[in-house]
Structure to design on (528 residues):
């Protein structure tokens, strides 16, 4: 069953990966990988690299504005493009979308392993893995979000290797854990949180398992330098000045200073001045409601056990596992709130805590299941309530599954309990700009002119550029991206312009709505 489940996921990715557009940052992420590939080639084989005719067109590392972003994932993708012979932009991004999906399937498998150990059964592990797949927003982003969803998988792998090392603190397990943690840091700097969890829970194990203290200390001595070596080796930006450049990257990550507006609760506000509840509210309204309810039950069960006998709870293996899940979820979320960290595009920067939410939800469901089974057959009220709750749970999980089918390929617009028009008014819409591909395709399908001039809002020009990357070459050659006064069509995905456009822009000739939320509109410009 497990093999079939993950086999179906692989086939699903093969079938669907061409349906999604190019996200806002995809070209910039790819360029970062290309610049790093040039840097590595010049450092390792300078004579051979200088013979490459295209190298002169690639910026140097000193000109790379994203040098402080890890490239452990982007760099191999650049190499894979060359190996696969992907030259046209369609081939490049279709290949990359398939690879990111397969990476996310591997991350789902890591969650399955963690859940199997935590909840004590492969069936429960498979249920938690399925819950991750049936999370509409993350499902869609698993095809184009190279940063946050990929990092979710790497972070989960780090938790899996941490749990194995804590169970058996031998140096081999410490070495594997170091590889996982170093890789996570090289994907996103926030992977340093795994270092804190490792040291903190190693201390707990040493306190409650004195016989393992020497092994814990010895293997920890292997883990720390090996992690540092992996981080430096996998991040070319650090090669010349490992400590200084890492501190610079970490400071850039923790003190993001770009000025940008975002729509939150119906207001356009600066990302530098977000209210404390920004991340929790986004998380709540985009997570399927049954998961949130069961998460609350799971946290309640864990809290009740901890408060009843704190010492015994912490001394038990399951108690420390519960504490790890709580720290995984509430630690980063609490830090973001207390430090007033800059977030934007919803809560995507915190996606890596979502597996902990699902695991604690599984803990809640498991507790409810055991309580229901333990109820005597003579308790018809409780058993009846159990059947009713199971029916509601099935309906609650069926709703996001149905929406994933009906809204394809825009599952990224899923809201759990808010009506679509309300959500579209209160929150950002298609902030990835994916629907621009559909708008351009409609224009070119309905206009047979040799050249078709199209404009968009100046602030979202990158969206229009990304949208044409997946067009067939013959259609791409007909497209002209021009200023508004020269355009025949105006295309918008409503980012940074949530209000309706004035009638002077021209009549709307096409739009795409998902659950009542308008994602993309095409306006025909007035004039001959």
């Amino acid at each position: 069953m497990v093999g079939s489940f993950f086999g179906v996921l692989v086939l699903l990715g093969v079938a669907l990966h061409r349906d999604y557009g190019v996200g806002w940052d995809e070209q910039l992420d790819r360029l970062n990988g290309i610049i790093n590939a040039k840097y590595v080639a010049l450092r390792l084989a300078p004579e051979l690299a200088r013979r490459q005719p295209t190298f002169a067109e690639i910026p140097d590392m000193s000109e790379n504005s994203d040098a402080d972003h890890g490239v452990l994932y982007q760099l191999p993708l650049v190499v894979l493009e060359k190996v696969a012979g992907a030259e046209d932009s369609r081939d490049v991004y279709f290949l990359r979308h398939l690879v990111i999906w397969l990476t996310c399937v591997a991350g789902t498998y890591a969650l399955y392993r963690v859940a199997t150990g935590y909840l004590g059964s492969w069936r429960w592990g498979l249920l938690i893995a399925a819950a991750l797949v049936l999370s509409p927003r993350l499902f869609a982003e698993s095809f184009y979000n190279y940063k946050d969803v990929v990092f979710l998988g790497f972070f989960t792998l780090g938790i899996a290797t941490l749990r194995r090392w804590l169970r058996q603190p031998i140096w081999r397990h410490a070495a594997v854990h170091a590889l996982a943690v170093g890789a996570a840091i090289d994907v996103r700097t926030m992977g340093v949180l795994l270092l804190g969890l490792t040291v903190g829970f190693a201390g707990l194990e040493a306190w409650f398992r004195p016989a393992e203290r020497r092994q814990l200390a010895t293997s920890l001595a292997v883990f720390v330098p090996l992690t540092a070596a992996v981080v430096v080796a996998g991040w070319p930006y650090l090669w010349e000045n490992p400590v200084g450049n890492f501190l610079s990257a970490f400071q850039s990550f923790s003190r993001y200073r770009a000025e940008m507006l975002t729509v939150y609760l119906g207001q356009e506000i600066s990302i530098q001045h977000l209210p404390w509840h920004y991340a929790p509210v986004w998380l709540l309204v985009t997570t399927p409601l049954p998961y949130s309810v069961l998460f609350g039950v799971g946290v309640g069960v864990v809290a009740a056990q901890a408060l009843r006998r704190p010492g015994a709870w912490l001394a038990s293996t399951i108690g420390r596992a519960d504490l790890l899940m709580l720290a995984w979820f509430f630690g980063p979320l609490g830090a973001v709130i207390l430090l007033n960290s800059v977030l934007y595009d919803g809560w995507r920067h915190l996606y890596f805590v979502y597996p902990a939410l699902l695991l604690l939800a599984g803990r809640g469901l498991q507790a409810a299941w055991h309580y229901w089974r333990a109820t005597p057959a003579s308790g018809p009220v409780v058993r009846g309530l159990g059947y009713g709750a199971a029916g509601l749970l099935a309906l609650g999980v069926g709703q996001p599954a149905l929406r994933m089918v009906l809204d394809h390929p825009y599952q990224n617009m899923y809201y759990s309990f808010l009506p679509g028009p309300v959500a579209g008014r209160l929150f950002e819409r298609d902030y990835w700009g994916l629907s621009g591909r559909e708008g351009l395709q409609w224009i070119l399908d309905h206009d047979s002119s040799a050249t078709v001039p199209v404009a968009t809002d100046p602030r979202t020009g990158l969206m229009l550029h990304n949208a044409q990357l997946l067009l067939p070459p013959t259609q791409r050659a007909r497209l002209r991206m021009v200023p508004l006064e020269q355009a025949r069509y105006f295309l918008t995905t409503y980012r940074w312009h949530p209000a309706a456009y004035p009638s002077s822009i021209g009549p709307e000739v096409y739009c795409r709505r998902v659950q009542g939320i308008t994602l993309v509109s095409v306006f025909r410009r007035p004039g001959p």
User: Anything to note?
Assistant: The mean pLDDT is 92.
